[in-house]
Amino acid sequence: MKAWLVYTLARLGIFAAALAVLLVIGxxxxxxxxxxxxxxxxxxxxxxxxxxxxxxxxxxxxxGRPERDADSDFEDDFVDAADTEAAGSGAAGSDAAxxxxxxxxxxxxxxxxxxxxxxxxxx
Length: 123
Prior knowledge:
α1 packs antiparallel against α3 (49-62). 72% of the residues lie in helices and 0% in strands. The chain has five helices and no strands. The longest helix has 23 residues, at 3-25. The protein is mainly α. The model is unreliable at 91-102 (pLDDT under 50).
């Protein structure tokens, strides 16, 4: 049987058992339903980690991997080249704004690099 079906049936069974117990105790139906939902959540979290892991691995294996396209490859190469240049020029020392002494951008992240470019363009 499929893992997701077994997991779903197990959770429904735990909910039904908790609901029956709470109704026998004498709670009103709406309080019993809320309590059974909470009890079912907690018990299934503690008692069913193996089934939950099987369901997640099944879902993850069905999910396709994203295709790489030329635009993504170009963008990745551009970012890698900029990081390599920043790391190479960082040896000269940098000021507080993240720009090295020679004036090139020594930022470590894309956000820092874009912020430094905007600041240079505003000046």
